[in-house]
Amino acid sequence: MTTDEIDKSKSSFTRRLIIPCLISCLAAAGLLAQEQKLVPIPLDLPQPGYEGTPQNLKVANLEKYAKRAPFLVPAGIVNVAKGKKVTSSDKTAPAEDLAMITDGDNTQVDWNFMELSRGVQSITIDLGTVNEVYAVVVWHFYAPRVYFCTVVQIADDAGFTKNVRTIFSNDLENKTGTGIGKGMNYVESYQGKLADGKGSLARCVRLYSNGNNVDALNHYIEVEVYGRPAK
After folding, report:
1. For the segment 47-89, what is each residue's pLDDT rounded down to a tens digit?
2. What is the pLDDT of residue 24?
3. DSSP 8-state assignment for residue 36
4. Would you state the pLDDT for residue 58?
5. The pTM is what?
6. Rounded to whole angstroms, how far apart are CA atoms 56 and 39?
7. What secondary structure does DSSP assign to 75-132, as a single string?
8. Rounded to 5, what percent of the chain is helix, strand, coil?
9. Which of 44, 129, 141 is closest to 84 using CA atoms?
10. Does an H or E element contain 18, and which?
11. pLDDT tens digits along 131-180
């Protein structure tokens, strides 16, 4: 074989090797771009409930109420908590009441909430599988109250012994035993409180509270977890 023939053979081999690789890389880049396309979170906000004059809201470390800016997530994110099982530290809470927390109904009316006992209480939502968690949104009550020691955690197991991470906490005195929080107290509204999950992998979500500025009871209207199954 002559030198020219060898060079042509090498050139042909290079083209056969590189071109398919380039096509594969471009296709992968296109899929990645589609996956990373950011859109507003598909959050269906309820109509505002009772918006009377807030009572006894002289609460320390209280953030100023403001309309939340659009929260962006990758396309295809949904509420993965809808219909999922909820358990609680309050063993007197009926299962049918706990089921209201993930029934998909965040309507702001005085009959659409469930009640937990006084003091520090928690609820745990098992998503069933590991998910990329981008946001957790909680509505406690339909009227303007402040719920104390609000903590949102995610973990790899329902017992919260594996890879526990706190994504929001305004527990300033560690009354929940989850550590000192740096978040601010806030007034309940139709917007709910959104905790940024940053796409972290988790199977379970746990929320704490420790009464409110009106009484020592704990309430939940709805909790939504926006994510997608982990790849």
Report:
1. 998 755 566 578 999 999 999 999 999 999 999 999 999 999 9
2. 54
3. T
4. 85
5. 0.84
6. 38
7. TT-EETTTT--EEES-TTS-HHHHGGGGSS----STTS-EEE-SSEEEEEEEEEEEEE
8. 20, 35, 50
9. 129
10. helix 3-35
11. 999 999 999 999 999 999 999 999 999 999 999 999 999 999 999 999 99
pLDDT of residue 140: 98
**Cβ–Cβ under 8 Å, residues 123 and 98:** yes
pLDDT at position 213: 94
Neighbours of 43 (CB within 10 A): 18
Residue 62, classified by CB atoms within 10 Å of its CB into exposed (0-12), middle (13-18) or buried (19+), is: middle
The span from the CA of 29 to the CA of 103, in Å, is: 38
Q: Is 39 helix (H, G, I), strand (E, B) or coil?
A: strand
Mean pLDDT calculated for residue range 92-96: 97
The Cα angle at residue 137 between residues 135 and 139, in degrees rounded to 5: 175
Structure tokens at 74: 């990758």
- pLDDT for 29 equals 44
- DSSP 8-class letter at 148: S
Based on the number of CB atoms within 10 Å of its own CB, is 211 exposed (0-12), middle (13-18) or buried (19 or more)? buried
CA-CA distance, 88 to 156, in Å (whole number)? 17
Q: Cβ neighbours of residue 198 under 8 Å, at least 6 residues apart? A: 134, 167
Structure-token match 């940053």, residue found: 198
In degrees and rounded to multiples of 5, residue 114 shows phi and psi of -115, 160
